[in-house]
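User: Can you predict the 3D structure for this chain?
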Amino acid sequence: MAEAAGLGSLSPGLRAMFSLLTPNESSFQRVEDVPRYVEQASPFFIGLMVLELVVGMLTSGDPIYTVSDGITSVSCGMISRLPQLFMRGCELTAYMFVWEHFRLVDLAWDSAWTWWIAFLGVDLGYYWLHRAAHEVSFMWAAHQVHHSSEQYNLTTALRQSLTQQFTSWMFYLPLALIAPPSFFAVHIQLNLLYQFWIHTELIRDLGPLEWILNTPKHHRVHHGRNIYCLDKNYGGILIIWDRLFGTFAPETDKVVYGLVFPIKTFEMVHVQLHYYLYLWKRSKTYTKISNKLSTFFKGPSWAPGKPRLGDYKLVPKVTGKEIPYNPSWSLPLQAYVVVHFLLVLWTYHDLFQKKMILSQFTILGMTAYILLTLTALGYIIDQRPTASVLEMLRCGVLMAMQRYTHVKPLPLPLAVPTEAFVSLSLLFWALQSFSQLTGIKKKNV
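Assistant: Here is the predicted structure, written as structure tokens:
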């Protein structure tokens, strides 16, 4: 009883991050009553990232995060949620349809047994979704976003795919035959939140818990591009599924993170969509229809004459001395990108807060602005030649939005300095663009 009381004294939001909510406090009769645990978790995301940053600096003396990688990861997380502005999530919509038309039983909504069945069902569904996302190329095209960082920290957990949600729904439909949608709505969120804190190198080993739970130690292996790490440790909360189905691998050699062929860019649209274009181009090199289809439905490493999942011998070997891609750029430019990223994050948060009262046209326009901003900042980080023109246009759009009140004003002490900063930004990038244009003309003379 004392342990239960101690657990209950902790914030439910914090306990949700570790899937420590009890059945009594997280069982609901209606989907509409289920809290939005993920939306409410933002303060805990930020708090845990700050804690990781401080502890990492104190223990190693080196920063755990880089501006370029961290902003790219958070940007991907922001983009992954944008479809929710226009429609209900595919997973919950499909689940509710199957439940309403095809369910086999009516389990009691206030039973702890129903809660635990849903917990296990969601986690098992996630295991097979995650495994398919690695073993089917068109699904890997979505999931590779999450693996594209060569860093491994809590920001990596936020590097989510825009498109994975359009295929993930099918893996939870068997559970919809027996478990009420309200329980699915709870556990699909808790499963996602649990996986946030395991993206860290600071926690090395959790002792006996390593046998049952997915932990930072197990998930580091999953993110590795070492041969022994590939296609291993798919579990969400529980690692028992990997042990049962033969996909478990312990952490041994130093893990080198990222894709087997690193993409070497921080531009958000490329990170999200490049693999689809790669699959399309690759399929066009084959003449047989079967090979064209296999390009999309077999493993990412598949080739004609190879096994379904391809040949790991063709994967580049790692030495453990690989250095993550992190091109140098000036500190003032990093500060500039951070400030503008915080401004778009403010707009993004306000958009989700007001989505029920805004017109579809306004939501569409603000979504376009968010995408434009994240793309432009990625161009700056990548130091692309066209970054100055794109950023000049973006600053002009931001000034117009501020003038016509489509952007929530900042607190009064910050409002005037921010408007001045945006105006100076526009002027700076206009001069940069003019300088580039005159330079090109001189070369052509």
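The two ends are 84 Å apart (CA to CA). The CA atoms of residues 344 and 370 lie 6 Å apart.
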